[in-house]
Amino acid sequence: MNRNKLFADLLIQSKSVGTGGPRIRQSKRGIETKSAQEIAKMRQASRIVATVLKEIMALVEPGQTTADLDAHAEQRIRDMGAIPSFKGYQGFPASICASINHEVVHGIPSRKRVIQDGDLLKVDTGAYFEGFHGDSCVTIAVGSTSDAAQHLSHVAREALMCGLAQVRAGNTLLDIAGAVQDHVESHGYAVVEDYTGHGIGRNLHEEPSVFNYRTNQLPNVRLRPGMTLAVEPILNAGGRACRTLRDGWTVVTVDHSLSAQWEHTVVVTRDGCDILTDRR
């Protein structure tokens, strides 16, 4: 849920989350590794997120509004003893991001936004449990979605798994980025560069930025056991250029091409990663 390419700067600012969510302060903690006890709490937060997304994937249908999905997510997160991570975060007004078709990220749920047959719907949500966050996103093909839309989502999900295959102690962020970029571009799609994955833990967004494309402009961190990351490839069927709408949140493709995103929260292990938001 990174708002812009200045995310690294946001991380080092001391800034409170809005009143709708947990009162967490961003700090200059740097890149953290988590203890077994901390990972256990993140596992529970992530399990709540996975449960909510699995439920939404099963219940979404044409005629619902994105506000309906948001209400379900918030109630279920609270029912399971957690707090919605997104609600109130930097002023965001809802518990999920619901982005449809050419909307890339950060779509604000609304009772006026009716889900249509054939839509490509991205649902991103997070849960805060006993001091730690989990975060995940799915792309849902609603009803009789076009083959092109389904293929875009399929490649986005494959790109996530290609990236996660590179998550292990001793590898670097560029190993993840290169695997994602190569898979996306081999299918003729564009990686969105304005938004990246991130560290996660006590704060929803922590260092490092987990990028999805090769770059020398961000630190190429070497991974260590116990690091917790949100890996989230975002890709467009057309060009990579995006813009933010007047609501200050919803990001859309400039050329109105479709966009897809998949995300998991993971913990780095010595020989791979543990997917904390696995929906199985």
Q: What does this protein structure show overall?
A:
A hairpin with a 2-residue loop joins strand 14 and strand 15. By secondary structure, the protein is of the alpha+beta class. It is built from five helices and 15 strands. A five-stranded antiparallel sheet has the order 8-7-9-14-15. The chain has one domain (7-12, 29-275): Creatine Amidinohydrolase (Alpha-Beta Complex), CATH 3.90.230. The model is unreliable at 1-28 (pLDDT under 50). The two termini are 24 Å apart. The protein has helices at residues 7-11, 36-59, 66-79, 147-164, 173-186; strands spanning 83-84, 96-100, 103-105, 120-129, 132-141, 190-191, 197-199, 206-210, 228-231, 234-236, 242-244, 251-253, 259-261, 264-269, 272-275. Helix 2 packs antiparallel against helix 3 and helix 4 (147-164) runs antiparallel to helix 5.
What's a concise summary of this model?
This protein has 280 residues and is α+β, with helices and mostly antiparallel strands. The chain contains five helices and 15 strands.
Query: What portion of residues belong to β-strands?
Result: 15-25%
- The radius of gyration over CA amounts to 17 Å
**N- to C-terminal distance:** 24 Å
In CATH terms, what is the architecture?
Answer: Alpha-Beta Complex
CATH superfamily: Creatinase/methionine aminopeptidase superfamily
Mean pLDDT: 91
Q: What about the largest sheet?
A: 5 strands, antiparallel
Structural class: alpha+beta
Overall number of strands: 15
Overall shape: globular
Provide the CATH top-level class: Alpha Beta
Strand order of the largest sheet: 8-7-9-14-15
> Which fold name is given in CATH as the topology?
Creatine Amidinohydrolase
Tally of distinct domains: 1
Order of helices and strands: HHHEEEEEHHEEEEEEEEEE
The helix content is: 25-40%
Poorly predicted residue ranges: 1-28
Continuous helix count: 5
